[in-house]
Design a protein that fits this description.
two-stranded antiparallel ribbon; PDR_assoc; 6 helices; transmembrane helix; Plant PDR ABC transporter associated domain-containing protein; transmembrane
């Protein structure tokens, strides 16, 4: 079923020609989405890296630029070599930013549903029985021998 939905989305995008927009075709009120997207930086970096490779250095049909630079200009990609490093730095920055935001979200946001902890069957049966023990909270496991059986107790 998800495959059908993704095919529907792709066919819808192709039907209305929204699958790919060049930088110059983006409306002014929508250009912020281009600049905050990590994919735009990745696309620019990979494109610049590929098109400045020696295999694309042959002269283009206009005779002014290399074939790689003409291709970059054709697709409205920045045609300077330093855009590779801008893309690398931006992707590294996005990685750090998203990791920090994810860590902060895990630290300070409450879970959506009910908190559920996993406890042993022994502890669950003690809790159900109403165990009126006045022990301190037990955090560290320590093995102790009582009679013939070995039991594990949590001790502070």
């Amino acid at each position: 079923m998800p495959l059908i939905r993704s095919v529907d989305v792709i066919s819808y995008a192709h039907q209305y020609d929204y699958a790919f927009m060049l930088t110059g075709d983006i409306p002014n009120w929508w250009v912020w989405g281009y600049w905050i997207s990590p994919l735009s930086y990745a696309f620019n970096a990979f494109s610049v890296n590929e098109m400045f490779a020696p295999r694309w250095s042959k002269p283009s049909s206009d005779g002014l630029n290399s074939l790689g630079v003409a291709t970059l200009n054709n697709f409205d990609v920045y045609a300077e070599k330093y855009w590779y490093w801008i893309g690398v730095a931006a992707l590294l920055g996005f990685t750090i930013l998203y990791n920090v935001l994810f860590t902060l979200a895990l630290m300070y946001l409450n879970p959506v549903g009910k908190k559920q902890a996993i406890i042993s069957e022994e502890e669950a049966s003690e809790m159900e029985a109403g165990g009126d023990s006045k022990e301190e909270p037990r955090l560290v496991r320590k093995e102790s021998n009582k009679g013939n059986s070995t039991s594990k107790q949590l001790q502070l």
